[in-house]
Specification:
This protein is mainly beta. It has two helices and twelve strands. The strands form four sheets. The protein has a five-stranded mixed beta sheet. A hairpin with a 4-residue loop joins β1 and β2. The protein is globular, with a radius of gyration of 15 Å.
Length: 149
Amino acid sequence: MIDPQAHFLYLVEGGGRAIRYGVGVGRSGFEWSGIATIHNKQEWPDWYPPKEMIERQPEIKRMMSELQSGIGMRGGPRNPLGARALYLWQGNKDTLFRIHGTVEPWTIGKSVSSGCIRMINQDVIDLYQRTPIGAKVVVLSSRATAFRP
C-alpha cells in the first residue's frame, strides 16, 4: 500500500507486519491513485518518457537516443528510473506509472515526480526482491484526510 500524503510505501507481510519505505510521489496535478498489479519488473530499466513529458520538459531530449523500443535512455546509474522498476498495470493496460529507484534521493519524502513512486535505490532493490509479479498495489488518494486521534 502506498500513502502519498504521508510519503510512505508499506509492504504488507503476514501476521499484521509491514515494512515501511519512504517514497517520493507525484506533484500537484500528477497524482495517481487506484489499485494495480505488478505486471513485470526490470533491473536497471531503460526509460521511455511519454511524449507529453518530453513536450513539458524538452531539455530531457538531450539524454535520449534511439533504443530497441523507441526513443529513450538506456538503463544504468544515471537513468532516472534508478536500479529497479516495478511496472503497474490495471487488467491488460499499462498505467504508465512505476515504482522505481531514483538518481535524486533528496526527493524522497516530497511530491515532485510526474506521478511515479520514487524510492532510494537500496530500498527499491529490497522491494524488488521481496515482491512477486502479480502482487496487488493499492495507492491511496493524496487528497484523503487521515483520521489521527
